């Protein structure tokens, strides 16, 4: 009986010990598995968030670069158009000024030419009148001389 009791107690103890070890092993394996799963999920989540953040940052930088390049291009285009407009207006203004100066020069030359022509005509008129006056005076003197000579001749006769 004592032997059977000891044997039974030994078997019971061994069974309890085996069950305890088995339970502890299962619990440890479960905790380890859960920890590994949790760490994997956490790592994957952090990696995904990092990749997403980097993608958003890259897209933002790319968008800002494109926007900056567009603004710069528009500014350069606007400045080029403005410069061409100013240059065109300057050329047009210079052309108008040159045409005005040329027109004024032609008008002045015409007035000068007309003045010279008028003075020439006036001078020729004065000269002609002087010649006519001198001819009349000469004819008068000649006529008076002839008359005087006739009177003298008649007187003598």
Automatic annotation (TrEMBL):
Q: Which InterPro entries match?
A: Acrosomal_SP-10-like
Q: Which domain of life is it from?
A: Eukaryota
**Database matches in PANTHER family:** ACROSOMAL PROTEIN SP-10, URINARY PROTEIN RUP /ACROSOMAL PROTEIN SP-10
Q: What is this protein called?
A: Uncharacterized protein
Biological classification of the source: Eukaryota, Viridiplantae, Streptophyta, Embryophyta, Tracheophyta
């Amino acid at each position: 009986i004592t032997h059977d009791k000891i044997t039974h107690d030994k078997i019971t103890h061994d069974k309890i010990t085996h069950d305890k070890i088995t339970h502890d092993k299962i619990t440890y394996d479960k905790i380890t598995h859960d920890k590994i799963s949790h760490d994997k999920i956490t790592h994957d989540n952090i990696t995904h968030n990092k990749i997403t953040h980097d993608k958003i940052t890259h897209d933002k930088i790319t968008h800002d670069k494109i926007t900056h390049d567009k603004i710069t291009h528009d500014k350069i285009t606007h400045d080029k158009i403005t410069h061409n407009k100013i240059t065109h207006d300057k050329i047009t203004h210079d052309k108008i000024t040159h045409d005005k100066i040329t027109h004024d020069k032609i008008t002045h030359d015409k007035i000068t030419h007309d003045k010279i022509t008028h003075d020439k005509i006036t001078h020729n008129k004065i000269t002609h009148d002087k010649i006519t006056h001198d001819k009349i005076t000469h004819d008068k003197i000649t006529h008076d001389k002839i008359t005087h000579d006739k009177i003298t001749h008649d007187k003598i006769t």
